[in-house]
């Protein structure tokens, strides 16, 4: 009996079949397709970072529009001697332009 156990150990049995390269390639393509689909459909895991950047962009548009309009209006007031009128007018136009850009950003993001 001891001899038959030794023979069974030494005999070549079923060797594990190495994984086929085609299966590895298929797995890789499936993983890539799933990640591309998640990005395309907006289910990407890095969504929080994108929202943070979007918030910073909206804030920059709002502040930039107001400061830009006020600065250009102040310069025109100094050049032409029209006390607060260019400042107020261009500040208003800067705010309108900033809100227009913010609305454009928000509608582009929701698609």
UniProtKB/TrEMBL annotation:
<dbReference type="InterPro" id="IPR016989">
    <property type="entry name" value="Atp1_alphaprobac"/>
</dbReference>
<dbReference type="Pfam" id="PF09527">
    <property type="entry name" value="ATPase_gene1"/>
</dbReference>
<feature type="transmembrane region" description="Helical">
    <location>
        <begin position="82"/>
        <end position="103"/>
    </location>
</feature>
<comment type="function">
    <text>A possible function for this protein is to guide the assembly of the membrane sector of the ATPase enzyme complex.</text>
</comment>
<dbReference type="GO" id="GO:1902600">
    <property type="term" value="P:proton transmembrane transport"/>
</dbReference>
<feature type="transmembrane region" description="Helical">
    <location>
        <begin position="58"/>
        <end position="76"/>
    </location>
</feature>
<protein>
    <recommendedName>
        <fullName>ATP synthase protein I</fullName>
    </recommendedName>
</protein>
<keyword id="KW-1133">Transmembrane helix</keyword>
<keyword id="KW-0812">Transmembrane</keyword>
<keyword id="KW-0472">Membrane</keyword>
<comment type="similarity">
    <text>Belongs to the bacterial AtpI family.</text>
</comment>
<keyword id="KW-0406">Ion transport</keyword>
<keyword id="KW-0813">Transport</keyword>
<dbReference type="InterPro" id="IPR032820">
    <property type="entry name" value="ATPase_put"/>
</dbReference>
<keyword id="KW-0375">Hydrogen ion transport</keyword>
<dbReference type="GO" id="GO:0045259">
    <property type="term" value="C:proton-transporting ATP synthase complex"/>
</dbReference>
